[in-house]
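Batch manifest, entry 17 of 40.
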Amino acid sequence: MWFANAGSPSGPDAERGAGRALRSRRRLVGVLLRLAASVLLSLVAVEVAARLAGLRPKDELAANPNEPILHAPDPLLGWKTVPGSYVIPPYAPEGAPARVTIWPDGSRATADVPRTSGSELLLVGCSFAFGWPISDQETMAWRLQAGHPELRIVNHAVKAYGTLQALMLLEQLFAAGERPTRVVYGFHQSHEDRNVAAPRWLAMLERFSRTGGITLPYASLRPDGSIERHPPERYPTLPLRGTLASVAYVEDLLVRPAKLRVLGKRRVTEQLILAMRDLCVRHGVRFDVVLLQASAEARSAYGRFFAREKIAYADCVVPIPPELRVPGEGHPGPVIHESWTACVENRLLRTGA
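Output type: structure tokens
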């Protein structure tokens, strides 16, 4: 009998052992509860401090849910246009729908049907050159085509692109056999931030992307002044970012080191423009720049840069008051595109400058 009960102690010793185990468990539970309470109070304190400092949770998706999705992710460029016909609903009651046509080659329509003859003028740039969000026939590229039947205008500008992406797209087009007579790069000063993947630009892409996880390639300068390209990067997103200001603050901390690369953004942009120029020269293609938006300081600085590097350019920057913007959205409307068209014609096409 003693053998059968050897593994099951009983009596006073067993009761004392059970009591000690129960007290140990209670102490452990107490420690864990106090620890959890301490952590919770610390998190609450951090959240309160963050809000008192003026920080707020990150807004969730801010894009217009009625906008059609014209782009698809691309492992090298970040995103690319998707061929098709789209209708962009108005952003305000006084606005009108915009019709956007992306041809099979990824370029935006510049006529009712693609032209197959004439000297090709290939346009690259961002939403200003693309003509977002106005209808095909209202864009600068369409107007240039209508006014110059001797040319074949191809609009390969892409919404939200920077100089690096325009250069990479141009490299892909040349590698595929495209040989325009002339390349015109539509410059917007915000390309400087985009070229170095400025944290604020990454945050904006994350906020306005409806496809999620949008990435951006960027460039930096090596010690010898040459360009180094980096693979696409995205803004870090953490759980509860839309609820807790403290989480949003941690996200900002994660990208804080990236803010240093913004310091060299103009020099990076200049080197990318030179790379675009040199690419065109190697393929026997003329390269021009049209300034579509820039501050007075930037216009002056780039004007000196273009003169020094012997790059033909047209300064087509004009004020864009609210009444000349797309109602409820903010991009330049048809009147501004008409002004840019006249500027490009007078300063690049007719003069041959």
